Amino acid sequence: MGQQQLLYIILAVILIGLSVIFGITLFNNYSVQSKKDAIVDELSTLGNMAQQHYSKPAMLGGGGKSFANWNIPVNLRSTPNADYTIKSQNANQVVVEAISSEMLTGDIPIKYNLQIDPNDFQITDITGGS
């Protein structure tokens, strides 16, 4: 076999190896972003549910202008995307924390906070924070 053919084989193996590594990296990044998007979607759903509870009169099973007795529905406390818990709650505000079982680099889980007020809610990425 000639040196030129050997060089082509080595070059082809290097290019295939780099392509595989690039593909795996791209897939992992897409997977993490997809998980984050799903968590944000579920948090938005919880935010809307809490605001509906706040606005609904107490005699109709709502909060009567209070978040004090709102709870995360049982079927949404733990989903394939994350576990959701209420961190703090009072009549005018609820803070929900989402922690994913999927880890980023090392042992760092994906984390989000959802702060719900009567007229608005805010979702904050707290991944890597304490």
Describe the SSE topology:
Elements: H1 3-55, H2 74-77, E1 83-89, E2 94-103, E3 109-116, E4 121-125
Antiparallel strand pairs: 1-2, 2-3, 3-4
Keyphrases for this structure?
4 strands, 2 helices, rod-shaped, 130 residues, alpha+beta, 4-stranded antiparallel β-sheet
In short:
This protein is an alpha+beta fold and 130 residues long.
Helix-strand category? alpha+beta
How far is it from the N-terminal to the C-terminal residue, by CA? 60 Å
Poorly predicted parts: none
Strand order of the largest sheet: 1-2-3-4
Number of strands: 4
Rg for CA atoms: 23 Å
Q: Roughly how much helix do the residues carry, as a percent range? A: 40-55%
Mean pLDDT over the full residue set: 92
Succession of helices and strands = HHEEEE
Strand coverage percent: 15-25%
Number of helices: 2
Which overall shape is indicated by the principal axes computed on the Cα atoms? rod-shaped
Q: Give a quick account of the main beta sheet: strands, pairing sense, barrel closure.
A: 4 strands, antiparallel
Structural summary, described in words:
- This protein has 130 residues and is an alpha+beta fold.
- The protein is 44% helix and 23% strand.
- It contains two helices and four strands.
- It has helices at 3-55, 74-77; strands at residues 83-89, 94-103, 109-116, 121-125.
- The protein has a four-stranded antiparallel sheet with strand order 1-2-3-4, with helices on one face.
- A hairpin with a 4-residue loop joins β3 (109-116) and β4 (121-125).
- The longest helix is centred in the N-terminal third of the chain and has 53 residues, at 3-55.
- The chain is rod-shaped, with a radius of gyration of 23 Å.
- The model has no long low-confidence stretch (mean pLDDT 92).
